[in-house]
Each structure stands twice: as C-alpha cells, then as structure tokens.
Amino acid sequence: MAIMVDPRYISLKNWAASLIIDFPNDIVPVLEDENKWEDWASRVISTGTFSKAGLPAPFTIVQPGIRKANFQKWEDWAKVVYSIMINELNIPKNIIG
Known about the structure:
- Helix content is 40%, strand content 13%.
- By secondary structure, it is α+β, with helices and mostly antiparallel strands.
C-alpha cells in the first residue's frame, strides 16, 4: 500500500521527490525547475497511478501557444491532487510538519 506526503507541510522540491519514493511502481518525473511546476504537474497526471485517478490539469491550452492556469500556485493544485489520491485510492495520510 502506498503512502503520500501532505503537500501543505513541505516544499515543492521535497514533495515532488516524495512522490517518486511514495509511488515506486510509477515513473514519476523529476522536478528540475520549480518555476516550471505546471509542466512537471502535467507530466505527473499522465503517469501510471495518477492518470487513473482523474486528477485536474494544472493548465488549459486555450489556443496553440497560449495556456490558462487552472491553479494560482502549486500548493493549490497539490492539495487537490493529495485529496483525490488519498480518497479514491485509499492511501493513508502521511503528514510531515
């Protein structure tokens, strides 16, 4: 059974790294640049277990080359992801704080 760290109590870099550890059977992408969190998040939601959970996209493409953010901050997106993953996949909470 997987565990998942609550993103409210951890930095983006550390939360991204924790997903790699918490989901070892998935190929979770490495977050290289925190300023490009939306691109990273888009890859996460299309990966293994995450793709099956129906997670929200961090942005919507409104026309070629133009996208609209669906979340103001990474924390907002991550809280939704966390909530969906622990509820739909019965993952126990692992709060670090």
